[in-house]
Amino acid sequence: MTSVTVYGAPFSPAVSRVLACLYEKDVDFKLAPVDMAKGQHKSPDFLKLQPFGQVPAFQDELATVFESRAICKYICNKYPEKGNQNLIGGRDGGLLARTSVDQWLEAEGQSFNPPSSALVFQLAFAPMFGFKQDPAAIEQNEAKLANVLDVYDRRLGESKFLAGDDFTLADLVHLPNGHILVSKKEDLFLSRKNVGRWWEEISARPSWKKVVEMQNVPQS
Question: Which residues form the GST C-terminal domain (predicted)?
């Protein structure tokens, strides 16, 4: 019986980031739905798991962890022998390999995530939940994201993946927002030769395909 529980729904970008990592590491898990429409994420019991009342939350026999990128690093460090052993730079990769992963993880969090998350909300979630789209916000964040992807394109002309020649967490963390944005504004990614090649490769990974399958299952 698995001891790993992830709280949240797979359509959430942050939850899907954790699920992709678990699949990469071949770690069994249980997904526990959180009905945010009914305010379950603000309940006293859930706030013990995630003090900010957001998803995902992660729990195993040792710890409770929140924030998707921290959860992913915890999974990689707890299960170094399982599944993909290169996600945080490889056990034998040394300081430079791990630092390369860390710096591109930071770049995703600081540079890619803010404009991409704003676009995901405006282009996908606002229409879904009946909110009015903001054309100015879309234009502004599309320009910001384009600048980031220009940097990525140069980097990916030098290496197969962001942190080097192996697929790592630095690539994986882009999958949730990238998946939504490619379905809405694919030219942002696919018009850039190196970014397009990179995106086609990382989005075709079996781990991510499993997450997409989960997303396509109707939620009760």
Answer: 94-220
In angstroms, the CA 56 to CA 5 distance is 10
Model confidence band, residue 217 (pLDDT cutoffs 50, 70, 90): confident
Does residue 31 sit in helix, strand or coil?
strand
Residue found by looking up tokens 């195993």 in the block: 60
8 A C-beta contact, residue 27 and residue 80 = no
Contact 185, 37 (CB under 8 A): no
CA atoms of 19 and 209, how far apart (whole Å):
11
Q: Is 176 helix (H, G, I), strand (E, B) or coil?
A: helix
Virtual torsion, Cα 214, 22, 39, 132, nearest 10 deg: -60
Strands (E) across 81-200 are located at none
| Region label for 60, one of left (φ > 0), alpha (ψ between -120 and 50) or beta (otherwise) | beta
- pTM of the entire structure? 0.94
For residue range 113-164, list pLDDT tens digits in order.
Answer: 999 999 999 999 999 888 999 999 999 999 999 999 999 999 999 999 999 9
